[in-house]
Design brief:
single chain, about 475 residues, alpha/beta, Metallo-beta-lactamase, Chain A, Nonspecific Lipid-transfer Protein, Chain A, 2 domains, 17 helices, about 40% helix
Length: about 475
């Protein structure tokens, strides 16, 4: 059983790399291909989870592979996987339903996320429960629903670091905010601890965030990574009062499910003890040939106006009318590199997209997304704006209290996932069949918006 394999190369336009470096995939492929069955589960569409190069190698060399997906309200995930897996077996798992894959292996897929579906996977192997929460965020009612459906897990695995663009936000003039927009490392560790404690697992493993930024445009964000060893140290302090056992399990290491002992990788452990900045500089140097090829391709890139215009026009046309008047003409994309500069001006009120060599006068409600033309071309061609923020290969210029970047980001994500913005999806039996099973999450969503409305109302009255 494999979950979200990313075991070769990098992700997000050479921004993300496994750290410590991953095991050689050739030996794994050889081992996997000799098994009776190989089950590969994909939690969601982000490229460090849906890693095309790794999935292609598995599909090509493992004849015994069966691909498993959550049966989401939208079809984007299954369509993209079919393009890679071709004629391989693809099984979509119904939300909250247990499946027996072999005599000793049962799984249960559990979805979350109203605009862009993510999922957790509960694995029961020979009576030992493992909850791979991964990147999924489960609120009060949804978490309660999951815990009613599964036995208490012995192990819980969860991500523990930033995978968003908040650290990339700046003031309109490009200066840094007075207050850091992203959460501090301790907040991510706290969320990890609180979730694992609420689940009631015996052992908690920091998972799915073991990476480093090696591209020269994103290397600076290594300072904000909440690494697994920091999470374990945080939990060790907390477990003096709460019964939770954190386990540090690095790439290339394994856990004995019965004894809970970690089989450690000496090279990985030595890396974690060394000066992290120096180790990452050496890591980037070891990948310099690959990175230099990327820099050369990017240096030659200009903007493909047809592809970019076509993408954003479709986003504009899919935008609900009440959001058009909120966004109006406040969203601009600055395609910028050392050798290129062009502004893409998006007008939701007039339903138009135009290009200019000059930026408009920056108003208080404006938002500027600064993106390399090479990256922007690829985002629009492959409809993957959802990966842009995760990559950190952008900057967002906006006033601190301006949330139009968030609305625009959700709009693009929902559009390209073929979700609730398309009537053909909303009226489908699949859409309603999935959401009827996810009704506790709807309660969480209503509770969130009611609290948000009350907070906004209180702020408004206080201002008066």
């Amino acid at each position: 059983m494999i979950c979200d394999p990313w075991l070769v190369g990098s992700a997000y336009w050479r921004s993300w790399w496994n750290f410590p470096p991953q095991t050689c995939i050739d030996s794994l492929i050889e081992e996997w291909s000799g098994l009776d069955s190989l089950f590969v589960y994909i939690t969601h569409l982000h490229w460090d989870h849906f890693h095309g190069p790794t999935l292609k190698l598995i599909a090509q060399h493992c004849k015994n592979a069966h691909f498993l997906l959550p049966l989401t309200p939208e079809r984007r995930l299954s369509k993209d996987l079919r393009g890679i897996a071709r004629k391989k077996s693809i099984i979509e798992l119904v939300h909250g339903r247990p499946y027996q894959l072999t005599r000793d292996l049962d799984v249960l897929s559990f979805q979350s996320g109203p605009f862009f579906a993510d999922s957790a996977l509960y694995i029961n192997v020979s009576g030992i429960g493992i909850l791979n929460a991964n990147d999924s965020k489960l609120s009060r009612f949804a978490l309660g629903d999951l815990l009613r459906k599964i036995d208490p897990p012995k192990f819980v695995l969860r991500s523990h670091s930033s995978a968003n663009y908040r650290a990339c936000k700046r003031n309109l003039d490009g200066s840094s905010y007075d207050a850091q927009p992203d959460k501090p490392k301790e907040a991510y560790s706290s969320e990890f601890f609180e979730f694992c404690s609420a689940v009631g697992a015996s052992f908690a493993i920091p998972f799915a965030s073991n990476m480093a930024y090696l591209h020269r445009d994103t290397f600076v964000y290594n300072n904000g990574i909440n690494s697994a060893d920091l999470v374990v140290s945080y939990c060790d302090e907390k477990t003096l009062k709460f019964p939770l056992n954190p386990l540090l399990v690095l790439p290339g290491e394994s856990v004995n499910l019965k004894s809970s002992k970690v089989l450690q990788s000496e090279p990985s452990r030595l890396l974690m003890k060394k000066n992290r900045s120096q180790v990452l500089r050496e890591y980037a140097l070891s990948k310099s040939e690959c990175l230099e090829r990327q820099y050369l391709m990017e240096a030659k890139a200009s903007l493909n106006l047809r592809i970019v215009e076509n993408y954003f026009l479709k986003v504009v046309n899919a935008c609900p009318i009440f959001l058009r008047w909120y966004l109006k003409d406040h969203i601009s994309i600055h395609a910028k590199s050392e050798n290129f500069s062009l502004f893409c001006l998006i007008d939701f009120a007039r339903k138009s997209v135009c290009f200019s060599e000059y930026a408009s006068v920056r108003r208080a409600n404006d938002v500027f997304f600064v993106i390399h033309p090479y990256v922007l071309n690829d985002v629009c061609l492959n409809r993957h704006f959802n990966s842009l923020g995760v990559s950190k290969r952008l900057e967002i210029l906006a006033a601190p209290d301006n949330k139009r970047d968030v609305v625009f980001n959700y709009l693009c994500n929902t559009f390209e996932a073929e979700g609730v913005l398309l009537w053909s999806v909303i009226i489908s039996r699949r859409f309603w069949g999935v959401w009827l099973k996810r009704w506790p999450e709807l309660l969480d969503t209503l509770l969130f918006f009611s609290r948000f409305t009350m907070k906004s109302s209180s702020f408004s009255q206080g201002s008066k």
